[in-house]
Structure formats: structure tokens, C-alpha cells
Sequence to fold (363 residues):
Amino acid sequence: IDRMGIWDKRDDMLVHQEEPYNAETPPGALAAPITSLDAFYCRNHAPIPRIDSASWRLRVEGLVDRPLELSMDDLRRFTERTVVATLQCAGNRRADLMEVRDIPGQVPWGPGAVSTARWSGVSLADVLAEAGVRPQAAHIAFTGADVSQQADPPQPFGGSIPMTKAASGEVLLAWAMNDQALPAAHGAPLRVVVPGWIGARSVKWLERIGAQAEPTGNHFQTEYSVLPPEADPEAVGPGDGITLGPVAIHCAILRPGGNERVAAGPTEVSGFAFAGENRTVARVDVSADHGSTWTHADLDPPESPWTWQHWRTVLTLPPGETELVARAWDSTAAVQAESPVTVWNPRGYANNAAAHVRLTCRP
Ligand code: MTE
Ligand code: MO
Fold:
């Protein structure tokens, strides 16, 4: 196995697959506002490509007046911008959906396919302005260098976002993560970062940007969609599902953990919540009595409009078995589904059901 780019990950990463490398952030590391590089989750559909950044070029083409071919030096001539943003995989917490009904052939992600970094690079909008995007271009497509066997025939990983999002200043073409050079595992020399959108649209090892009238036909654009529960994922066509973009309101309980030994009585309960796109976390409710009563948690201010927010509160836990439940509301008053049963779908995406932790308290 080629460990290139992943040798420097922590030993306690929860590794689902070695090749391609798929690993989630250990629970303890989710409590920090910014995730360290050695604990940031990794989601790959193909082996990590080796790219020589000196000969690498980014092509910008399609419905543009001036097609571009940019080297890293060319890109560094644009104004450098930094955005702190949370990335969350659409498959995060699929394991809870699999308990409802099996989802064959998919990674059984727990709650750690989410992390936050300080990303630096150029604004996609600045590069698109240089190329002169034509008015007919309603979508911006991204293509990576990694060729995935999961597509038939195999094809590079890709995805697209609408022009409205692409033109907003927060979408970056990033070469740095937490003020260090972007690691190979996270897309070096250059990756897209689409704040507030599912991780799959933040294409790594970027080679091509295409301005086009329609969303990309890339396999992974419609792979990341929510199908109706009765659909056969092998027999659906593009357009049969809800193609995912902005992240839905979501939260997790970090402490106490399910296997933690806790004494009955007043106990700090903490976690994080994340509202995607241009929504904010409005409130987090926590209950230790199956939702008869709810306590409103204290929310930390977000690092930026594009990040998770950590929260904490104190609940009085009874001796014996207890179940903690947390649910977040966003600024449109959308709330998390009560149970994964409600949101089960054949490919196991976008599980944003309320967070549950079962524990036994000492008297
Ligand atoms: N880009 C390429 N080229 N290949 C990939 O497999 N995986 C996507 C996205 N970009 C992927 C990609 C998915 S599904 C997610 S969730 C994020 O990258 C994960 O980013 P990370 O590995 O840096 O955490
Ligand atoms: Mo993902």
C-alpha cells in the first residue's frame, strides 16, 4: 500500500479503508475549533495521485471569453484570501442509517467525517473574472486528477456548483491548510473549498474548471444524491434523486461519550452544531428524558460564517441507564429529524437525524 500523503496521520484515526484511504477524525479531535492536519478526516475515491507542482497546470475553459492555463506561480499573483470553513462528508453518520436498513458497498462512516481548517488560496470568483465567464454559464464544473474505478467506465472525480455560489467570494482554490502547504492527501497542489456545501463538491487535485450551461455529467455529481427509499441504486438514472449541495443543519454530542464512566448528578454535556450555506445555528436543545424537557445549550461564537459551533450545557443525569439527545435548529427554523428512520435513503447520504448517546451513570 502506498502511504504517500497519509503517513503523517494520527494513529487513532478511525480508518475504514487503507486503499483508497478513508478515515474519520478521532472523537477527541472534534472538540477543537480548528482540526489539526494530522487529525483531519480523509475521503478518497481513488489512490492519492502524485502531482509534480512545477509542471502542473490548471485549465479554465468552456463558456469563457479567455481560456486560461495557470501555473502555481500564475495563481499566486492573484490576491491571497483565507477562509475558515468546516468540511463535512455527505456520508457522515451513515453507520446509523445502516442500523435502520443495510446499505451495501458504502463506507460505514461514524460521526467523524467532518473537520474544520483555515484554508488559504485564491478566490474562485477572481479566477473566473480573469477568464471572463459568459452569461450562459450557469454552472462551474471541477475535475480532479484522480481516476476512480467506482465509475463505469473509470473517470476522474468531479463535481459542479451553480454560478451563483461560484461567484461568491468564499469559494476558494486553496493551496494552504492551517497556514501550511496543502498536504497531498487533501489535494495538493490545489483544491476547491466550497464552504457550507457537502465535501464532495470541494474537489481535490484540481486540474480543470469548466464554465457550462448545465451541471456536470461527472459520475460523482449525481452519485451524491438522496434517492427515494424504495429506489434501486443500481437502476436509477441521473435526475432521479435530490442532488446534494448545501449541508443540512446537524449536530453531534462529543461528551460524555457512550463508553465514558460518569457519576449521576450535574454533568457537562458538550458537542458541536453545523448549519450549512448561508444559515446559522440558531439553537441547540439537549434532553436526558427522551424529549420531555429540553435544555438550551450555550453556543460558542463561530470562527467564521462557514464553521461549526461548539456548545455545552449542564444536565442532571439520573443513576442507571440514560439516553442523551441533542437537536439543532438553524436560522430558517429547520430542525433535525428525530430519527434516522425518517431520513434513510439507499445510498446513505445526508443523515442529519438528532444525536443520541446512551450511557450508564454510577449512583
Ligand atoms: N476530490 C477528489 N479529486 N477525489 C475525491 O475522492 N472526495 C470528496 C472531496 N473531494 C474527493 C475529492 C469528498 S466525498 C469529500 S467529503 C472531501 O473531498 C473530503 O476532503 P478531505 O479528504 O480533504 O477531508
Ligand atoms: Mo464526501
Remarks:
- The two ends are 49 Å apart (CA to CA).
